[in-house]
Specification:
734 residues, Butyryl-Coa Dehydrogenase, subunit A, domain 1, 4-stranded mixed β-sheet, elongated, binds flavin-adenine dinucleotide
């Protein structure tokens, strides 16, 4: 896995970014309005090589790859570049590949002439809106099975006053003089590649626009006060920005992912391009609107720059037409028979593969399940504690497969980070991602770090052998999200032992476990997070009562009561009143995962149902609407994947981490829920049934998804973390 650019790419991006910061400042962008074209900047940008990056070296270009061009476009979006950059990059490449236009090409690369592209076949649509058409002396177009260069005279280049003051023109290309650049399958394929490249580049540019708009909004919300506080402290302001940050970052990585797909020749690559373009048009459109709203009335004034982002985010993609067409296109590419020619990717250091060690451990886990798990056992698998099977648990421990996150010093395998991720993914793939193993692993690590010899001998050994499991006793009736407000009391007895009194809510697995990891109040007279201590409490001890609490997810949890429960001091973990520090040790097991695996399984079930169900005399999956909705779920799944990959890579490589784990969790749980709802609708009324098979599974996903936005920290708490750590907004929780 790799999210790091090559050194050359970093250098290239930095040098373009520096240039654009100076030459495409918002002052310059405003000065270039209303034509939307800054000729001086354009020439200097060309001198820097910006316009030649996709032209092969033998044609006088830099011969760089798609990712390089996407990086350039992100910077151009961030700085609202005043010129038709995406159109120029693809036109220049086409001119070079099709040949015969050396003079025009060299003038385009020097920034002395502009060439643009017509995105639709002019045989069918002879009159078209052309980005950069107001300044372009030539437009490359497809005309049936021919690719032509249309010469646009000064009189035909009539600038259209437009939403975002871009150099847009509506041109009657069909009636202007044109010369043929090529004919037949190859030429048409090369043209199609250029259009696909344009989609990716516009997607990247929009990600840049969206990210910068969110940055401006966050900065404003951190200094504007109303009602005596910074407006960024209102969650109604900060939370939508946090959601949009996930979407905008996700959009940028969708472009990178599509490039990786193209480089790998992946069958989904064509759909990945359409989805990247559609997603970024949507995400940037919403991000800039929310950003503008953050400025209140000032956002409407031309004094502030935010309106520039707002308008450009619309202008860039809409030249193609309604972005929903791109989603429908993705649907046809995923579920219909549409094929498309894709551009050459070039160098792409971005990699989502976890590597050979990861594959090996996943194969070992899969083989374990093959050998040890019967179909009857499988029938009882469940994503919750309900799926716990003591026999499988013990055998996994014996095979040293139960605790992939634990180090060698604990007698475990000490897997490298990506192998750990693969192991957890493999359990999920098998449908055996029981929290019993994950919590046992976390409790084991805490006991190993902070426990007494007695606790290690008595409890740790049993956890490690897979003979016992432990529950988590954090939540209480009065404190859930505000976990450090716990009131369950631990009082020191004269003989040094502890007496536990109180109630824990949602103590999942307490009916199956031998122990509970408890967060108890040991000092009520200090700030809440300073008066907590962690203990291990045996659930069979006198004074413990366990009562079931049932959920509509077929998942039992419990309320546990502790009435004068006595435990020795040796069952304490960490310092007295140091509970928060002890608890944070478990954070190093953070997986940064999210819910992609179950989302993928849900989408597969929906696809299967859409193939089986008939609508209007044909399989549902053949309808445009079903294809679009499935494609939208696919997009959410891919963004969930890339956000999780980034979080995992950041943790594994110890890179600066700006709430990437919370972003992966928030985004995937929320989309799991919206997609579960939509796919349930799409396949109704069959989806209402709990019968075994895809309908029953969809039905279960709909119920499961609700919980994912609550446990492990609610979506609201995650939004706050993202707002604070990734957008640097002020804290909203006491
Ligand atoms: C099936 C299930 C299993 C669970 N298992 C366990 C377990 O094993 N061990 C354990 O300790 N806990 C467990 N939990 C508890 C879980 O962690 C909590 O439910 C969760 O942290 C939320 O707490 P709460 O339910 O008290 O809701 P609250 O914290 O009361 O939240 C109610 C609503 O208010 C919102 N809210 C709260 N604070 C803020 C804020 N600062 N800003 C904005 N909105 C806010 C929340 O997002 C939520 O929408 C489980 C829960 C469930 C449902």
């Amino acid at each position: 896995m790799n999210f790091e650019l090559s050194e050359e790419q970093e250098l290239m991006r930095d040098s373009f970014a520096r240039f654009l910061d100076e030459q495409s400042s918002t002052v310059r962008v405003r000065a270039a309005m209303p034509s939307g074209f800054d000729a001086k900047m354009w020439r200097e940008f060309a001198e820097l090589g910006a316009l030649s990056i996709r032209v092969p070296e033998d044609a006088g270009g830099l011969g760089l790859g798609l990712l390089d061009a996407a990086l350039l476009m992100e910077e151009a979006g961030r700085t609202l570049v005043s010129g038709p950059l995406a159109e120029t990059l693809v036109s220049a490449r086409l001119l070079a590949l099709l040949g015969g236009q050396d003079d025009l090409l060299s003038r385009v690369l020097a920034g002395q002439a502009v060439a643009s592209i017509a995105l639709h076949d002019i045989a069918q649509q002879p009159l078209q809106w052309i980005a950069g058409g107001a300044v372009a002396e030539a437009v490359i177009a497809r005309k049936g099975d021919e690719v032509v260069l249309v010469a646009v005279g000064a009189d035909d280049r009539r600038a259209e006053e437009n939403l975002a003051s871009t150099p847009l023109a509506e041109i009657a290309l069909g009636s202007l003089p044109a010369i043929s650049l090529g004919q037949g399958t190859q030429a048409v394929a090369q043209f199609a590649q250029a259009v696909e490249e344009w989609k990716l580049l516009i997607g990247a540019g929009l990600a840049g626009i969206g990210r910068e708009a969110l940055k401006l909004a966050a900065a404003y919300a951190s200094q504007r006060k109303q009602f005596g506080q910074f407006i960024g402290q209102f969650q109604a302001i900060s939370h939508p920005l946090a959601d949009l940050l996930c979407e905008v970052d996700g959009g940028k990585f969708l472009v990178w992912r599509a490039i990786r797909n193209i480089a790998d020749g992946a069958p989904e690559a064509g759909a990945a391009v359409s989805i990247a373009a559609w997603w970024n048009a949507e995400a940037a459109g919403r991000a800039v609107a929310q950003a503008l709203h953050t400025f209140g009335g000032y956002g409407l004034t031309t004094e502030y720059d935010i309106f520039l982002y707002n308008l450009r985010a619309k202008a860039w993609p809409l030249v193609f037409g309604d972005p929903q067409l791109l989603l429908a296109e993705a649907g046809r590419r995923l579920y219909g028979s549409e094929k498309v020619a894709l551009p050459e990717a070039g160098d792409c250091p971005i990699e989502f593969d976890l590597g050979d060690d990861a594959r090996a451990i996943a194969a070992e886990i899969n083989a374990f399940f093959e050998k040890n798990v019967t179909p009857q056992m499988r029938e009882k698998f469940h994503y919750s504690w309900e799926g716990y099977n003591p026999e499988i648990h013990r055998k996994l421990a014996q095979a040293k497969l139960l605790f992939p996150g634990l180090p060698k010093e604990m007698g475990e395998r000490g897997l490298a980070p990506y192998a750990k991720i693969a192991a957890m993914d493999a359990f999920e793939h098998q449908g055996y991602n029981t929290p019993a193993a994950n919590v046992a692993q976390m409790v084991a690590l805490i006991i190993h770090r902070f426990g007494s010899d007695e606790l290690r001998k008595e409890v740790l050994s049993k956890l490690m052998a897979g003979e016992a499991i432990a529950s988590l006793g954090y939540s209480e009736p009065g404190s859930g999200s505000d976990v450090f407000a716990a009131q369950c009391k631990a009082t020191r007895e004269p003989d040094g032992s502890w007496r536990i009194d109180g109630t824990k809510m949602f103590t999942s697995g307490a009916n199956l476990a031998s122990y509970v990891l408890m967060l108890c109040r040991t000092n009520p007279d200090v700030p809440k997070h300073k008066g907590l201590t962690m203990f291990i409490v045996p659930l069979k001890a006198e004074g413990v009562t366990i009562q079931p609490v049932y959920t509509f997810q077929d998942e039992r949890t419990n309320i546990t009561f502790y009435d004068g429960v006595r435990i020795p001091d040796s069952w304490r973990l960490g310092e007295v009143d140091g509970g928060v520090r002890t608890m944070s040790a478990s954070l190093e097991l953070e997986h940064g995962g999210g819910f992609s695996k179950v989302m993928r399984a849900m989408l597969k079930a929906a696809e299967q149902l859409c193939r089986e169900l008939q609508r209007d005399g044909k399989p549902l999956i053949e309808s445009t609407s079903a294809q679009s909705r499935l494609a939208r779920s696919m997009a959410n799944l891919w963004v969930s994947d890339v956000l999780a990959f980034r979080a995992q890579w950041t943790i594994a490589e110890k890179k600066p981490n700006h709430a990437f784990g919370p972003m992966a969790k928030l985004f995937s749980s929320e989309k799991f829920l919206t997609d579960a709802r939509d796919l349930l609708d799409l396949t109704a009324p069959h989806s209402l049934s709990k019968r075994t098979g895809p309908a029953g599974f969809l039905n279960q996903c709909y119920r499961h998804a609700q919980g994912t936005t609550i446990y492990g920290g609610t979506s609201e708490v995650h939004r706050s973390m993202i707002a604070e750590r990734a957008l640097e907004l002020p804290r909203t929780r006491a």
